[in-house]
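Two folds, back to back.
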Amino acid sequence: MKSSSEKPNPHNVSVRMLYDKEYAQVVHVELKPGEALKKRITPTDVFFDVLEGKGVVEIGDEQQEVSRDMIIESPARLPHRLLNPENPIFRVLVVKAPRQTEA
């Protein structure tokens, strides 16, 4: 098993690609207090697996506070993002299945 280094990204947060194969993609996201991902739309289904802490998942016009061990589905072509308003740490696995092939 090899370690994954942080990848530069437009969100300016800690992002590590853990798995990138033809049928799925898994990214580790770590948000510090006050950090958030920019709202985006993906052409594939996504789910978020909360590993640590509490934060907010926004999908479409809805927001939900989430915490450790929760899995949240985000259908393809709906705007979504992750936010950490004030918690010490918010770590999430972002899984795209099937793997995103278009921008």
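---
second:
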Amino acid sequence: MAESLRNPPLAEAIFELQLKPTAGWDWTVAGLLYERFKEQFSERGQAVAVAMPGLPVNIQPVMGFQRVQLKRPDGSAMIQIAPNQLVVNHLRPYPGWVSFKKLVLAVVEGFLASGPRLDPIGMHLRYVNLVGPLPRQGDLSAVLTVLPQLSGPLMRESAGFYQRHELIYDQPKGVLVLQAGLTVMEKGPQVVLDLDFVSATNGAGGVDTVEALSTWLEEAHENVGAAFRAALTDRAYHGFKE
């Protein structure tokens, strides 16, 4: 993702910001943010936040509260607002990193102009990719370098698999959560490659301006892009460039 791909496998790009309870959030933020972005995100809705198994505690949705959702009419992007939480989602067609980052920063600036302070306890930049269909059922080695380590009688085609790695980074401080699994879609079996860069709790506190957030986004995106490239075989990766 650090390199522009002609046919990227991206299914969804997500930025999430979670603020400290003392950041000055209240429900008027959602209405003010809608007024600011209603020309682009004209459709409003609500959803109940639920706990997501496997997510670090510092980026868990706030339990029991509703999220206000602001959506583009074509469904390509969405802003979600919950107590002390802001999420920007972008589905296909993905406009590229420069445009997505510009959207994230614009939404955060609007969010902060509505009242809260930028005092995060957690941030993450997440890319969910669908790679495939596989040439043969269970032929993971055709697309992935991150493979289950099986031997002996276990060496056979896979009907399904899931694995998760949490990799520690220093620049910026955080953890890259790499999840890979096999799913069956209409076109055949595909690999889900989920790359989620999560800020360290003590590292998020240094992001107190939009400029600092812009730097964090660039560094996080570089790490996600390098992990994306390393997780794919040369053949699979170059196929997305054609």
